[in-house]
Fold:
Amino acid sequence: MIYTLQILIVFLYPIGMYTEKLPNIVLFVTDDQDYVLNGMAPMTKTKKLIKNEGIDFTNAFATTPICCPSRSTLLSGLYQHNHNVFNNSIEGGCSAIKWQKYLEKETFAVRLKENGYNTFYAGKYLNQYGNKNAGGASHVPPGWDTWIGLIGNSKYFNYTLSVNGKKKYFSSNYLTRVIQSYARGFVKKQENSSYPFLMVIAPPAPHHPFTPEAKYAGFFEGVKVPRNIQFNFKNNNNKHWLLQMKPSPLPMHTIKLLDEMYARRWETLLSVDDLVESVVKQLDIIKELNNTYILYTSDNAFHLGQFSLTWDKRQLYEFDIRVPLLVRGPGLPKNLSVSDPVILPDIAPTLLHIGGIKDVNLDGKSFLPIRKKINRFFMIEYHGEGTLDRHSDCNIEDENVYGFEEIYNLKEDQFQIHNLRNKINRVCRKKMQLILKELQSCKMENCHEVQNYDFSGCF
Structure:
């Protein structure tokens, strides 16, 4: 399914970019970390070291709210309809031979390496990475000098890494800590290097199975999913059919399970918080912190009980698409909150921009430096896995849904309760449909130019 528009606003504050010497880049990418449900609350060190020392983009969005397609977007700078990774399966394009043959050779890592960067990747890559039908563990994606790739989907124990193309099995070593060790080791080796470096650090947290490190187990016992109006909301008659399925409201034993998941997710993030602190400290030790851009984001968000859905992502609503995005670096202001929208396709062109590569033509666009205020339209799209997952208490979360329109005014209805589809006049709806049509087939610069629509008087 392909979802309709999200909200528009753009960039306000002029800032500097980088010095003549190319800066280093460190990108942290978590897995399923929400923003709307206070998913950044456990990240006290990260907020102190990145947010307080840089910019908090409060309207950052995943354009496809599911892991592999979103990660493919982040790496390529392209919308899903242009990179053609449609779901988490090899058949759906995830780490498939077609991806490897074409777009994997054009990621930001390849171009930055060509521009003189020493590159490092550690953690989850794409869900099917390491599959024997996708080249196995010996396949090291181009552009990476040091490769520590998790084989398969997120785990915390009993996993295998591809260490520069060779399998290495870990049973009792907590994955986030292993990633931390590799990352610190790489940074240490960069001391006095004449080359800039790029690091992508992708821990598994807070993805299922929500397993915290032993020292953090139970740390957030009793913390519960926020009880805002969306939680266990049952009057979904103005939303697509999936949200009208029973049980609604959810039974108490399911709500108890959701609260337990919420607490465990927070606990897994405490180890990520340590990871961020460790890398930042090591950058400081080798005297590269002030010449390094550090970005922190997630591949998509997550829900736990909103609109009586149990747990998953994949939906068009704010709780599944809004992700954290923190950025610090040379010339950037400190402790600045920016509400202008940024989308994950913007990450790749931003990194290329930082790395001194100017001939960038991608679906996303660099969000540095912050530009003058203009309208911005963008699309949330997802084609589904083609199956309907079933949990014990309800049917969720993934099925092709066609032909249902939902329109929300987030200024007055931040929880997306009131579908305005039947209240918006025909002219305004026609404009929205035209925007969606343009975005569905847009490529590169054309995706930036879908702007000339006036919605005054529509809401």
About this structure: DSSP finds eleven helices and 17 strands in the chain. The first strand starts at residue 2 and ends at 5. The mean pLDDT is 91.
